[in-house]
Amino acid sequence: MMRLLLFLLCIAEVSLYTAFQNIAGPIYSPLIILVVSFSIGFLGLRLAQGPFLKYRDGSEVRQRIVKITGTLAFLGLSAWMVVMLLPAFRQVPMNEEAYSDVMLTYIHMIKNFTHGKPAFESFFHGGYTISPAYLPFQWMPFVISELLNFDYRWIAMSSVMLASAYFFYQNIRNSEYGGVFWQLIVPVWPLVICIALMRSNILAFQITVESLVAGYYLLLATAIDKNKWVLMAVGLALCVLSRMSIALWVPLCLLVYFCSPDRKKAYYILGILGLFVVVFYVPFIVKTPSLLSNPYQAYLLPIEGAWSRNELMNGFSFNAWGMLFLKGSVHEKVLAYQKIHFYVSCFTIALLAGFYFIARKKNALNNYLLFSLKIYLTVFYTFIQLPFIYLYIVPLIVTAAILSGAFITSRPVSKNFP
């Protein structure tokens, strides 16, 4: 019954960003999202401790049928995505005139980088100056597209599809656990999320490349769920060097490892993360020290513009609360709300750390980390100032690993806590 409830909550979560978007208005809808996503995190943590029921009929033939059926479902859903995207990408061609400032900035950075010019060089467009500040793994993969002369958006989709394929493989091969229905549904859940978002708002995939970052987060969440700590460290580095949204969770992750019997892994993870920063980020910082400036400052003007026009009150974030209830000018409201966002995120990390020390003997390390990542991302994104729909593929995609931890396991969970 609890597993069914978790699955229904996961359906509800996707629906709140698609079919039932803004269902209770901009004031109450984010509260509903918060409750649903928190419930997924806590219920997933409890169910991840088992027990895991094996098939009553554990024959090799039945397991083989399940794997073949699951593989066909994965391939079918992947093909469906491609069929949806091909005409969508043709409809919005890849050129500098057809894109938002985000894509224009990517194009500018990549062309500069491939021609030996400073990637973060400011440029003038549409009557104002744009100063690029994107992290390396948010734009560098598109260098492949530039060199081979194909659409950047296929690199982004390849990221989430390859991560989905890895997630699928890690779950479908464990067909002795979970039951037939869950064994078929859970491994393809990342693709279900992507297709639901595409059918609801294909424009988000036409003019953005957030699926690149979603692939990183799915890789990270899958590695955590399956106790692949080296791959987890790589995934963490990719996430950190694509969006700063995960930055506050990194110290919590290292703390958990440091306080466990696997303390050495904390140093290894920190070392891998540091290596990625030194190799892929420091060279740009040396040339452009302004990249270390306050990340909130870089988004101040776009936020003020959207808030002054009462835009993006779409029920995904508490930004509407800031617009309607904070006092002062738009500028003062935005500054106050940015502080609220930061302090709430920090407070969430503090609560999760406290929960770790209280309940660490009851929860395996990997299950706790996955739970804390889901809760933190839920809070971070429901307090974001510009709640564009494409951003929410990241917290949604992590839910797939929550389902995996609750329904499917390849071996007894790692009891890494003292």
Description:
- There is one protein chain.
- With 418 residues, this protein is an all-alpha fold.
- The protein contains 20 helices and two strands.
- The protein has helices spanning 2-16, 25-47, 60-91, 101-114, 142-148, 152-172, 180-185, 189-200, 203-206, 210-225, 229-240, 249-258, 263-280, 282-287, 295-298, 300-308, 319-325, 330-359, 365-382, 393-407, and strands spanning 123-125, 128-130.
- Strands 1-2 form a two-stranded antiparallel sheet.
- A hairpin with a 2-residue loop joins β1 (123-125) and β2 (128-130).
- α11 runs parallel beside α13.
- The radius of gyration is 21 Å and the shape is globular.
- The relative contact order is 0.15.
